[in-house]
Design a protein that fits this description.
Layout: E1 2-8, E2 11-21, E3 27-37, H1 43-54, E4 68-74, H2 76-87, H3 106-119, H4 124-131, H5 147-159, H6 161-172, E5 181-191, E6 204-207, E7 213-224, E8 229-236, H7 245-255, E9 260-265, H8 272-287, E10 293-299, H9 309-317, E11 325-331, E12 334-340, H10 342-374, H11 386-399, E13 406-408, E14 417-419, H12 421-430, E15 433-438, H13 444-452, H14 455-465, H15 478-504, H16 511-518, E16 522-527, E17 533-537, H17 542-550
Parallel strand pairs: 5-9, 9-10
Antiparallel strand pairs: 1-2, 2-3, 4-16, 5-7, 6-7, 7-8, 10-15, 11-12, 12-15, 13-14, 16-17
Length: 566
């Protein structure tokens, strides 16, 4: 006997058929019985389960009953970054190092290092651990890299950094306004580790943004008015900020065919020599036939406000002290724009008055104890001395940066101090003031607004230090420190492009929040009891689909992701 499958319409049936010979000895078949329809959980499955029980075998009603989920990998965030990378044409960066003889897939290593900075930033060994947790899109890498591959790729990136910078600038030109480019320039410090000294080392001791002296390197960053980073540079950690300005401007003009550059920079970049060099550069560009308007808006360091005391008094006298105002005057053939914020002035003045009052109360208390001690009154604790009291009070004044207002007479025999009322009035004059030097013809109020937009580049540095985690840097070799900065810079480009597209779509999510939500899309791998491997994506929610739409990216499918190797 055997099983025969018959079909009636869309349904299939199993029949038990017997073979026999008729009276003439010819072979024939006859149906003994119909076992039932062939479908999951149908009569045939029930019969099979009964026969298995009769044999003492635990029946399995369906291969799915023993389904085992063997692996789950993050997929949505890496897919989004890969599609964004592709849409920006960054695969074309490989032409920058085409003459390299390395056998390492530099582009693949660069991609995974950049994606890692945005998804799960860590060390280069951390990149390898991260790769074990994600489902990569098809084509991102052919073979998973090893640690040595990542390091060799970083060496190649630095070796061809100039060509790479030109190629990257070419790819980013469509995103930049060529006719009027307002660019923001600033520097920050990045902590590094290690005590060894190397030739051409960029690690040097300098004053960090925290105010401490640390071993570090400096990173300069140029961003457009829309917040898109377009250039960066690594400097030794003890480089003076003002010296970095002119090389950056020259490099920017070489890579981008700009018609007009309005440079906006913070207080550390203003120097007389910088202004003179900018004028010389403008003259050289004109002589070379390059029609470029080179303009700037530079903030005046607070330490130099004293140079403009007379101008500030004259301008303030013509304005209401409790009103916001903006005026201008001349300084070395340039416009000096002065803005006053009464709210900031009141806040600053209130904080200073409170500090002075606390110090005066402390001084009066010390004087009272010394006078009482001289009069024979006994107090708890050790007796006070005038010299010790002067020292303690002076250090208290210095700690809150009030030594220029509260003067402690350290040479006097007795403890004494005075309040410099003229200095206090001068500080009140400076409260809430912002001084900007510019050679533009832009109205004064617009000059102030453009400078205040510089805060956006500060947010860029915060992204580098928090979300992308550029430091501390554990690399020792200068070329790898520079390549690490390049990887983080490219990660910032992707971050900012996501931010621009989200803003254009009127979405309130940050890129970090977006990637965290897309990270919940997983590639699931399962095995059935009959040995089959199943791979698929978790079902996307409407919210996740809307994020892909906001980024103008296609939705991932199971076929778009590399199949796991089991």
């Amino acid at each position: 006997m055997f099983i025969k499958v018959t079909q009636s319409g869309a349904r299939r049936y199993a029949q038990l058929v017997e073979s026999f010979r008729n009276e003439d000895g010819k072979p024939r078949q006859r149906t003994v019985c119909t076992l039932g329809r062939l479908e999951d959980g149908g009569e045939v499955d029930t019969l099979i389960a009964s026969l298995q029980r009769a044999r003492g075998i635990t029946p399995v009603s369906s291969p799915l009953d023993g389904l085992r989920f063997t692996e789950s990998r993050h997929a949505g965030d890496v897919w989004a970054l890969s599609e964004l990378w592709r849409s920006l044409g960054f695969d074309g960066l490989a032409s920058a190092w085409r003459r390299s003889k390395t056998e390492v897939d530099v582009l693949a290593c660069l991609r995974v290092m950049v994606f890692n900075r945005l998804c799960d930033p860590g060390s280069k060994l951390g990149v390898l651990r991260w790769l074990q947790t994600v489902a990569l899109p098809v084509g991102v890498v052919k073979d998973l890299p090893e640690h040595q591959h990542l390091l060799r790729a970083m060496d190649v990136l630095d070796e061809y950094s100039d060509t790479l910078g030109v190629r990257l600038a070419t790819l980013m030109r469509p995103l930049i306004d060529q006719d009027l480019s307002v660019v923001f320039y600033d520097l920050t410090t990045v902590e590094v580790t290690g005590q060894t000294d190397l030739a051409d080392d960029v690690r040097a001791y300098g004053r960090a943004k925290s105010g401490l002296v640390e071993r570090q390197f400096m990173l300069s960053l140029v961003q457009t008015f829309e917040g898109l980073p377009i250039a960066h540079e690594v400097h030794p950690g003890n480089t003076a900020e003002a010296k970095t300005l002119l090389p950056m401007i020259r490099g920017l003009l070489e890579r981008y065919p700009l018609k007009r550059v309005v440079l906006v920079a913070d207080r550390g970049l203003l120097s007389v020599s910088n202004i003179e060099e900018l004028a010389k550069l403008q003259a050289k560009l004109k002589k070379d036939g390059r029609d470029v308007a080179l303009e700037y808006i530079l903030a005046v360091p607070a330490a130099r406000y004293g140079d403009f005391a007379d101008d500030l008094k004259r301008l303030s006298a013509a304005q209401a002290p409790d009103q916001e105002w903006c005026a201008e005057t001349k300084w070395q053939d340039n416009r000096l724009v002065v803005a006053h914020d009464p709210v900031a002035a009141a806040r600053r003045g209130h904080a200073r008055d409170k500090t002075i009052a606390e110090l005066v109360a402390m001084g009066q208390q010390c004087s009272g104890k010394l006078d009482g001690q001289d009069a024979g009154k006994r107090a708890k604790g050790r007796p006070m001395s005038d010299s010790g009291t002067k020292a303690r009070f002076y250090h208290a004044v210095k700690e809150v940066h009030m030594a220029h207002v509260i003067k402690v007479d350290l040479k006097a025999e007795l403890f004494s101090y005075t309040i410099d009322e003229d200095k206090k009035r001068y500080l009140e004059l400076l409260d809430g003031k912002l001084l900007l030097v510019t050679n533009t013809n832009t109205p004064a109020t617009e000059v102030v607004q453009r400078y205040k937009s510089l805060a956006d580049i500060e947010r860029g540095f915060r992204v580098l230090k928090s979300d992308i985690e550029i430091g501390p840097v554990y690399h020792r070799l200068p070329q790898r420190i520079r390549s690490h900065a390049l990887v983080c810079f490219m990660a910032l480009i992707l971050y900012r492009v996501m931010r621009m597209r989200l803003k254009a779509a009127n979405r309130s999510e940050s890129p970090s929040t977006l990637l965290e939500q897309l990270k919940r899309i997983h590639q699931q791998t399962a095995q059935t009891t009959d040995g089959k491997t199943l791979t698929g994506l978790t079902e996307m929610t409407p919210a996740q689909k809307s994020l892909f739409a906001a980024l103008e990216l296609a939705l991932p499918t199971p076929a778009d992701l590399v199949k796991p190797v089991l």
